[in-house]
Amino acid sequence: MALLEVRDLHTFFKTxxxxxxxxxxxxxxxxxxKMLGIVGESGCGKSVTMLSLMGLVQPPGRVVEGTAHFDxxxxxxxxxxxxxxxxxxxxxxxxxxxxxxxxPTLTIGTQITETLRRHLGMNRKDANKRAVELLExxxxxxxxxxxxxxxxRYSGGMRQRVMIAIAISCNPKLLxxxxxxxxxxxxxxxxVLDLLHELRSLHDMGVIIITHDMGVVAETANDIIVMYAxxxxxxxxxxxxxxxxxxxxxxxxxxxxxxxxxENVRDGRLLSxxxxxxxxxxxxxxxxxxxxxxxxxxxxxxxxxxxxREVRPGHWVRSAHPASERAAEPVGAR
Amino acid sequence: MIEPRRGADIGxxxxxxxxxxxxxxxxxxxxxxxxxxxxxxxxxxVDDVSFDxxxxxxxxxxGESGSGKSTTGFCVLQLLKPTSGSVLFDGKELTTMSKREMxxxxxxxxxxxxxxxxxxxxxxTVGDIVSEPLLIHSVGSRRSRRRSAEQLLEVVGFNPDFIxxxxxxxxxxxxxxxxxxxxxxxxxxxxxxxxxxxxxxVSIQAQILNLLKDLQIEFGLTYLFIAHxxxxxxxxxxxxxxMNRGKIVEYGPAEKVxxxxxxxxxxxxxxxxxxxxxxxMRERRAERQKHxxxxxxxx
Lengths: 334, 299
Fold this sequence. Notes:
heterodimer; A: alpha/beta; 8-stranded mixed beta sheet; 4-stranded antiparallel beta sheet; 10 helices; globular; B: alpha/beta
């Protein structure tokens, strides 16, 4: 049994103009010691998926349906009290912005020991000792001295390291990182990603990394989920996904990405995806990518909703036209 | 009413020197003291930067946050007054110009900003935003400005039927098109693009980059393209300047800088970029370890 098993998750937001189907039937597993990458563009539902699991969706949002089995319990059925024992303890979380997720009026030490004392019942002295170890583990120099500093004395990358230290402080079984490097410079990002990689193998944690950056998941994840308009459109082991992307959206995303190592990119054009993601109040009735898809043509893409199906072992795709089944060139006009 | 310059009629032939920046410095004083401010030190945001851009070409200015790339762009536009150095545009020295002289030059140098949410006035209609530069420079009549705005929107692939709507009704990509149309309004020769796509999603980013490429060819535009994303800069630029702590540490033809970087910092920067190819994960990680000392984070 997997560490985390999410099944058929639906999270909707009620608005005056209708219900936004932000997450619409998402299922996946996370194994211990593995890193799962969830990629997608803004508004695809990747963050809401995670907030739903942690019971952090605020009204008007609501988890409408689904289960999330973790450690023998269904996270979606837990009360607030029980969730508090899970969050920060069994499941660690890292958010995007290290500037706002630390409290500026408390020292770094207080913020790390807070978690240790709350969840593990440590006394002040033990907690302080452990905090120093944690800072060392995330490679912060002079850890013992830096414990009494306030967050403003730390740079962005350092703050994100502190967030990681807090997230792993109770030896969680699962770590959820939501865009952990988006606010950071590339050189700092590289350090943080390497650290996540190192800690995952060291502690045998399951890790979910949520990002919009294909490069970031390529460098870290074992398995990758691509989300589009509230649904999973492709799911595969990292190597297979990058070598043989099946969904037209995944293919287009990869092609749209300028690459540092390509040659003669100056004079060429990037492949772009026409249009933009659909409105999730009234998404396209069948295939949600059909209006932007170059393969959706004279067939029933607009009437029959594709199911997520396994085109080869471990490689799932939600499309009537996966790459491996395409006989001819695109039928639709671009 | 102005017709956009097309094809050969681009004011200065391709390949001619258009912008020449020499020994540009911008120091910001650090002040201390309660009643009497005393300058105790300077932040050397731009520290002796020189580069040239030829007509029809793109210079990519790349660096991390705080490297001074945007400050350099602002100094070129004279939106910030440089501490010292020279900015020659089409043979004319901008740093010593009076405000009035500079106003005339501003028609030829325009800017596209990073954040399409913050750089458009929410109380103005799309048409007013795009034609405002024409109004400021008293170009044409009310009606001809309106017609120009429609044309400009058409050029950037924005439906001119929406000319009376407000910016909040549009997505990031559409707003950036409005920003680009505004920059084109006065028929500029040089456009400073300051992180024009960093707020956009990948699929939209490609649309905007392609648009900028098309416009460059169509109107013979010259770009100073400022961005932190090395891959984006590579896709756009003929020449590259890598900035670090206010200085240009590497400068040359794009192909050369990317395939054979000489400077230690540029090597480290390139090694840090995540590459969408999981096969090379281990190799890239090892490569990064080599540059560990260069990449030490500020503590």
